[in-house]
Write a structure and sequence with these properties.
With about 325 residues, the protein is an alpha/beta fold. The chain has 14 helices and eleven strands. About 50% of the residues lie in helices and about 20% in strands. Strands 2-1-3-10-4-11 form a six-stranded mixed sheet, sandwiched between helices. A five-stranded mixed sheet has the order 7-6-8-5-9, with helices on both faces. Helix 6 crosses helix 13 and helix 13 runs antiparallel to helix 14. About 35% of the residues are buried.
Length: about 325
């Protein structure tokens, strides 16, 4: 039954654009916070996009990142806002491509992953958090989140030989807003978060924002990508791309995306994801190296496979860097 349903969904996805006609665009929004908040924040941009491309645009929300990825995979969503990690799955499994990325409200080239604790917590550093892990509860980000899972997963945990699911007394997962609110109300001792989400928390829940503080900040993360399906008609893709690249130039448009803490968008492509592919492999490598259950032979084989992939990625990244100088 499941296989039949999947086949029907796939068939529908293939046939939707068969006549090179699109009657509406479904716009997927990843679940960084409560859907009600996201819908309100995105509505002004959605309405302007609908006017600009001359067809209805409907927003689509899911309880987690994977829900939006799967919706694009089966063509229930044709356009979406993603993080860099989730965009990798969009490109690899959901027939998507990156066409632009956001610019934050201060014009920064990206944002930063955080680990936060309650302001009254005695913990002040990552080292202290890890040292007391067995006594503490921790909320990780969505498994598809770049700042909530991938970046801290490598830089804060894997590099220190730590698997957070086993290291803490209890480890759960939540979106950015849920994590921050859980720390603020002392439901968990620490959680992943990010600087963009902090801006939104300060605006939407200022009293809660005052209850948390950061004990760890990761390296710069490239701004979030926007993706659309590759099989959209070129005329539609051109209209969508032109809208985003030109948006945020007027005071009125800047005011409309102020709630998103962005100032506009700039062109991008799939090469934006290469460093995050590399980071994912480095995280896998560290996990294999610390896995005592693997035989020496299996460990050697798995590490060799990852090294080959890392070498290929390094070559691709070098090629991109050479062409953008």
């Amino acid at each position: 039954m499941l296989r039949t349903a999947t086949a029907l969904l796939a068939a529908g996805a293939l046939s939707l654009f068969a006549a090179d006609e699109v009657k509406e665009i479904n716009f997927g929004i990843i679940a960084t916070e409560a859907s009600a908040n996201l819908k309100t924040d995105w509505e002004p941009l959605r309405a302007d996009l609908e006017t600009a491309i001359g067809m209805p645009v409907k927003t689509f929300f899911a309880p987690d990142y994977s829900g939006v990825i799967e919706a694009m995979r089966f063509n229930k969503v044709q356009l979406g806002w993603f993080g860099n990690k989730s965009a990798i799955d969009v490109v690899d499994r959901a027939n998507g491509e990156v066409f632009c990325q956001v610019i934050d409200k201060d014009g920064n080239p990206g944002y930063w992953s955080l680990i936060v604790v309650h302001k009254d917590s005695p913990i002040t550093t990552l080292e202290e958090l890890l040292a007391k892990g067995k006594e503490l509860t921790f909320s990780n980000g969505d498994p598809q989140s770049t700042s909530g899972n991938l970046v801290p997963g490598y830089y804060a945990f894997a590099k220190n030989g730590v698997d957070p699911t086993k290291h803490f007394k209890r480890c759960i997962n939540g979106n950015h807003e849920t994590n921050a609110l859980a720390v603020a109300s002392k439901q968990v001792d620490a959680a992943t978060f990010n600087t963009e989400a902090m801006f939104r928390l300060e605006a939407n829940h200022p009293e809660k924002a005052k209850q948390i503080r950061s004990i760890w900040k990761g390296p710069l993360i490239a701004s979030d990508p926007m993706c659309y399906r590759k099989d959209l008609p070129e005329t539609v893709k051109a209209k969508i791309s032109a809208f985003f690249i030109s948006y945020g130039k007027t005071d009125e448009q800047k005011a409309k995306i102020a709630a998103l803490k962005w100032s506009g968008f700039k062109p991008s492509d799939d090469s934006q994801l290469l460093p995050f592919r590399q980071l994912g492999l480095l995280k896998d490598k560290a996990k294999i190296e610390s896995d005592d259950k693997l035989s020496a032979e299996d460990k050697k084989a798995k590490l060799a496979e990852i090294e080959t992939k890392l070498a290929d990625l390094s070559a691709r990244m070098a090629k991109v860097a050479a062409t953008t100088k």
